[in-house]
Structure formats: structure tokens, C-alpha cells
Amino acid sequence: MLSFGKIKSKIYNLTREFYWEFGVDLGSSNIVIYLKERGLVVDEPSLIARQKKKRWTGLSAPKTSLAVPMAFGAKAKEMLNREPKHLEVVAPIKNGIISDLGAAETMVSHYLKIVNEIPSKYPKFLKPKVLAGVPCSITEVQKRAVRSVFLTAGAGEVILVEEAILAAVGAGLPVGSSAGLMVVDIGGGKTEVTLVSLGGVVVGGGIKTGGDDLDLAILNFIKMKYGLLIGTNTAENIKIEVGSLSLKSGEPQKTMIVRGRDLATGLPKTVKVSGGEISEALGLEVSKIVRLVKDILDQTPPELMEDVLKRGIILSGAGASLRGIDRVIEEETKIEGIGDID
């Protein structure tokens, strides 16, 4: 006689072709959702604006205090550092892991509802199967938190895969082969360097340095050099517009007008910053990323090192779009062929 578990498994195998499948990258900076046979359907900042939780004390305190969500994604980002006293903008994911379980469940539920409204040939009464990317350094407790978020949001099955493998698969690279492939994933809150072979991780490591830390470095540089206080959104815009780590010979430097508050007078102030200054501001944080790459290369088996030298290093994540970071890694590691797959 078949057990309930085996019966459930047989039913799933018979009906699996009718299940809606999609992949989710629950990153510190953005939540990205790819829908089977449709491609990218969601790419939004991993932010939620909500009413602040009331701080109750005493016997009259309620058992739970639910914060009402007001905005998600880009709309929540517009409120960042502008919110009134009764609102707060929360980042549920920090350094690649869930830091606010309730906010993460609310955010994922919101986007899964949006995806569920997209017309599809798949029946909506069957819960979808989710393929979720996770850092290679994630713990079992953190994995359970990720599964819990998606199951609470309405997923029927959750499969966790290392982000480096997903990045390589997304680029069309043969991760199942015995040849080694090195992936440098520069996310919003962390950077991971992973060596992949035969569909698995051979060696890998990570640091809590990412795109958000680059923004903070720019913010502090402007504050120290010009006595100008700017917000994180402004710092990010500076990084995108004029940020560059290495200029080609004869290439003119980009400049940008930056507005903020003068720390000395408290009045509005305007300054002009150049790409060279931003390169100086980012130097320390970028050196941490380069050091991590060197550390993983030092742990790479000799047989796979030859593959890395032949195939180069793959860059992924939002931080990989920083101009010149490929040339810096190439110069520091002496490995040619540093490529951005995003």
C-alpha cells in the first residue's frame, strides 16, 4: 500500500507539466522574477514602505502588531529618506539574507499576486513552483527562512540553487561540464566569488561588501571633501553617471553637478564632482572585492585554474555594471577575459 507521501509524489509527477514555474532572485538591491516562457516580468528595488509598528507595552498590548504596507519597489525607493514620521522604508534583504521575515513575506506576496494576474496557459488553482537563487555561504537556518517566505506567499514548491550557478546558466554557459568556471557576483549587500564545476560549487566565499557600500563610500567622500550632505539615492546616481575605476588613455573624465546641504551653514549647496574623484572614493571598497577574488583563486585546484585562465572570469550582479571594474580585476589577477553577463 502506497503511503500518502508517495501518492502525493505520483500525482505531482503526473501533473507537473501544468504547474506554473518561475525563477526569483531575492537580492539586497532588487527582486527579479523570471516567468517560464515569458522571461523577465518583475525587476524592482527590494524595498517596502509601511506604517511604523506601534510599540505597545503592558497587559493591553496586542499579540501581533502588523504594519500596513503603503508602497513597494520603485515607489518605496522614491520615499527613501523622505518619509514622514508615521512611515518607514524597509529593506527586507540585507547582505543577501532575509533580515525582516515579515516584510519579506509581504513583499514577495505582493509580487506573486502581480505575477498571478498575468494571462497564462497554466491553471491558477495549482500553486506555482519557485526556483530561488541563494548565496553559496547561506546557512540551513537561512535556507529555511527563504523557503518559509515563498511558501507563505503561495508557492507550492521551492527549489534553492546557488546564485552563481543560476548566473552561469542564464548566460548560456555549460555549468554541467567538468571545466571550471569562476563567477564574481557583486550584489547590493554582498559580493560572492564562486568556482563552479560539474553543476556544483567547488570553492567559494563572500564578503559583506556590495553596491550599497559603494554608494556609502561616495556619500562619505562628498561629506568629507566638500562638507556636503547628500542622500543614498544621490550617491547611487553619482556612481551610475560618473563612476569609473579606470579611464582609458585620452578618455575625458565625466563630471556631475551635485546638490545637497552644507554641513557648516545648513543651507543648500552645489558642487561639481568628477569621475576621478569617484574612482578615489571607491578605491577601498573595490580593493576588498579584488582581495576576495585573489583569495578564491588561491584556493582553486590546479586542474581548474587552467580552465579559469582559458575561460576568464564572469561578472554578474548590479555591481558588475560599474565602469572599469572588469579592467581592475584583470590587472590585479593577470587573468584576461573578464566579462559581464548582465
TrEMBL record:
Can the keyword Cytoplasm be found in this entry's annotation?
yes
Q: Which residues bind ATP?
A: 236-239
Tell where it localizes.
Answer: Cytoplasm
The protein, known as: Cell shape-determining protein MreB
Q: Which domain of life is it from?
A: Bacteria
Q: What does this protein do?
A: Forms membrane-associated dynamic filaments that are essential for cell shape determination. Acts by regulating cell wall synthesis and cell elongation, and thus cell shape. A feedback loop between cell geometry and MreB localization may maintain elongated cell shape by targeting cell wall growth to regions of negative cell wall curvature.
Q: Which gene encodes it?
A: mreB
Q: Which CDD domains match?
A: ASKHA_NBD_MreB-like
Can the keyword ATP-binding be found in this entry's annotation?
yes
Chief location: cytoplasm
What family is this protein classified in?
Answer: Belongs to the FtsA/MreB family.
Tell me which InterPro entries the record gives. Answer: ATPase_NBD (IPR043129), MreB (IPR004753), MreB_MamK-like (IPR056546)
Subunit structure as annotated in this protein's UniProt entry: Forms polymers.
Keyword field = ATP-binding, Cell shape, Cytoplasm, Nucleotide-binding
The molecular function terms in GO held by this entry are:
ATP binding
Some GO term, biological process aspect, for this entry: which one? regulation of cell shape
UniProt GO cellular component terms: cytoplasm
